[in-house]
Q: What sequence folds into this?
């Protein structure tokens, strides 16, 4: 198995030692008996390996036993040479680290859930290392790959009766679903998303499962989903058929999770009719510019106020005043889109509240509106809440304030 002092990554020896000691036997694909290693130890081991693989996902593709490499070759090529050699080994006879995926079929629900979380972390790591490009090149034909992981998750969500396993599965899905949707392989996850939204059994699950679903929904990038599906049907189904129904759940913890999901989902909503002049790709670029560039520009303006003058701004950032004005217009349009999303959600909750005859749904709507008012205060974004002050009233208010200040100064003199 090597050692910590090898020329390779020390985590390789750590993962191999943990796997061979607590999880796998020396025979290909065979799990250690629960009589030899307690289930609690196996669960802790899977969690440790998951964290280790988050730092170096390529370890998942190696063999359980270290292969003998010439010292000079190992020192020169290290991880790449070892991975290439391991890929040439006959997988039918040699134990592999990725054989721990067999724990997804273990009889203990906690171990099944921990194994699924490990597979989800591997998909996320593969997306990072592949640069969000084709995952087939990263896995290179080695199983289980990303498609196997999605199939395992789908089978558990439809067939597994354990709430513990299902909750861990949703947590695993939350780990990689956003980067996977935004990668070149995003289409493969769409059928699973549609199944989750249309699953009637979802509302009969344990409350911990429902809260995990709400957290998952709060992270969905609906702009990317609209780009892949060419419609907003899934977005409307999520709002109407999932979150609104969870607001009427009997358990207050589920209602609280759904109310929080409404706050998280605001910035991820996308409606093409808000700006027909922009396509989905341009809108995504605007969002990315707002997220990445705006904090840099704001920090420069705070640290160097003189840089806001026209000459200095052009000198430091090589940006013409017209381009800066155009960028500010894009940011303004992005904030307007956010206010429109808030207005839509507030209107939907308001209509639901007026027609509700269920006390749980009424309580859930009030909690969602409260969370939204805290995250997006009506005093700062009045248009998003339908609060518009007429211009005449604004002028009279300012004149009244000015006259009152003059009166107070006259009294003081």
A:
């Amino acid at each position: 198995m090597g050692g910590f002092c090898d020329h390779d990554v020390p985590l390789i020896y750590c993962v191999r030692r943990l796997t061979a000691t607590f999880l796998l036997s020396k025979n290909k694909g065979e799990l250690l008996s629960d009589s030899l290693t307690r289930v609690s130890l196996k669960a802790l081991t899977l969690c440790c390996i998951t964290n280790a693989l988050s730092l170096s996902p390529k370890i998942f593709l190696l063999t359980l036993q270290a292969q003998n490499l010439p010292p000079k070759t190992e020192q020169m090529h290290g991880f790449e040479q070892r991975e290439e050699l391991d890929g040439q080994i006959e997988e039918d006879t040699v134990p592999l680290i990725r054989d721990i995926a067999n724990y997804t079929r273990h009889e203990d629900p906690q171990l099944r859930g921990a194994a699924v979380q490990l597979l989800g972390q591997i998909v996320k790591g593969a997306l990072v290392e592949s640069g969000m490009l084709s995952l087939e090149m990263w896995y290179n034909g080695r199983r289980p790959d990303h498609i196997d992981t999605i199939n395992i998750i789908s089978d558990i969500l439809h067939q597994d009766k354990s709430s513990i396993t299902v909750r861990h599965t949703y947590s695993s899905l939350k780990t990689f679903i956003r980067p996977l949707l935004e990668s070149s392989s995003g289409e493969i996850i769409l059928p699973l998303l549609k199944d989750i939204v249309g699953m009637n059994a979802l509302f009969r699950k344990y409350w911990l499962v429902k809260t995990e679903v709400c957290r998952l929904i709060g992270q969905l990038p609906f702009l990317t989903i609209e780009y892949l599906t060419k419609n907003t049907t899934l977005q409307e189904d999520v709002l109407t058929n999932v979150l609104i129904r969870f607001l009427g759940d009997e358990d207050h913890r589920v209602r609280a999770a759904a109310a929080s999901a409404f706050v998280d989902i605001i910035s991820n909503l996308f409606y093409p009719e808000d700006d027909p002049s922009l396509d989905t790709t341009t809108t995504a670029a605007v969002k990315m510019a707002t997220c990445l560039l705006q904090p840099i520009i704001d920090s420069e303006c705070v640290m160097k106020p003189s840089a806001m003058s026209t000459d200095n701004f052009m000198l430091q950032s090589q940006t013409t005043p017209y381009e800066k004005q155009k960028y500010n217009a894009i940011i303004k349009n992005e904030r307007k889109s956010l206010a429109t999303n808030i207005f839509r959600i507030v209107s939907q909750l308001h209509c639901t509240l007026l027609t509700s005859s269920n006390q749980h749904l009424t309580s859930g709507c009030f909690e969602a509106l409260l969370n939204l008012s805290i995250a997006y205060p009506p005093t700062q974004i009045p248009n998003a809440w339908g609060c518009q002050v007429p211009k005449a009233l604004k002028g009279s208010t300012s004149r009244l304030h000015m006259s009152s200040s003059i009166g107070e100064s006259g009294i003081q003199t």
Summary: The radius of gyration is 27 Å. The chain is about 65% helix and 0% strand. Confidence is low (pLDDT under 50) at residues 71-76, 306-323, 406-413.
